[in-house]
Amino acid sequence: MKVLIACEESQSVCKAFRSRGHEAYSCDIQECSGGRPEWHIQGDAIKEAYSGKYDLMVAHPPCTYLCCSGIRWLYNKDKSRNEDRWASMQKALDFVQALMEAPIDKIAIENPISVISSKIRKPDQIIQPHHYGHPHKKSTCLWLKNLPLLIPTKHMDVEYKITSTGKKFSQWYWDTSILPVAERSKARSKTFDGIAQAMADQWTRKYEQQQELL
Fold it and tell me: Cα(127)–Cα(42) distance, rounded to whole angstroms?
C-alpha cells in the first residue's frame, strides 16, 4: 500500500508501516526528526492528501486550538485575543474537515479529546497507550473511514506521579512537563510506538491477505 502519514515529523507511524513493507511517507511543514528524510515530505499535508497517490492516510492534525484542555483560553478577558483564538479554532476545524474529505479510500484522523467531537462528529474509537504496551494514560480519539477499530495488543498498569500536594499525573505527562515548550509539544504529540505498530499491523492486514491470494 502507499500510505500517507499527515502532520507527522517524528516518523513513528511512518516507520511502523515501513516495517511491514508498505510505501509510507510522513508529511509535515517541519523537517522530520525520525532520521529517515528520504521517507519524509516537507510541505502541505492537504496538497499531498489530495494528490491521488495514496491508498491509506493516518493524519495527526495539530491540536493546539482543538483540544478541550485549551478551551478555557477562548474565554480570555482580552476580547481581541478571544476573537483570534476562535478564528484559529475554526481554521483548525476546516483543516480537519479537509483531511476527512480527502480522496483516499482508508482514512484515520487522530487527536486528543477535542472540539472535533462536537463541531464535526464524534470519534469512532477512543484508545489508551496502556492498552498497547505502554504504562501511560493519554486519551486518543480516532475518526475512521473504511478502517476497523483498533484491537488492544498488550494491557499495562498505568504509572502515575503523585505530587506533594496530592495531585495525580500520568508519569509520561509529568516527565515531559520539564522540557522546553517546543520540545514538550513534540514529545506529547508523538504517537506511542505500540499504537503506531497496532495501526500498521491491523490496518494493512486485509490488504496483505488479499495480496497473498493473488
Answer: 29
d(CA 183, CA 61): 17
Beta strand 56-59 with 125-127 is unpaired
Using alpha carbons only, give the angle 126, 30, 80 rounded to the nearest 5 degrees. 75
Nearest to 40 by CA among 26, 29, 54: 26
DSSP H stretches of helix in the chain: 12-19, 45-49, 79-100, 116-119, 171-176, 181-189, 193-203, 205-213
Instruction: Give the total number of structural domains in the chain.
Output: 1
Cα–Cα distance, 39 to 5 (Å, whole number): 10
Cell digits of residue 203 = 490496518
**Whole domain around residue 8: which residue ranges?**
2-213
Specify the CATH number for the domain of residue 179.
Answer: 3.40.50
pLDDT, tens only, 118-173: 999 999 999 999 999 999 999 999 999 999 999 999 999 999 999 989 989 888 88
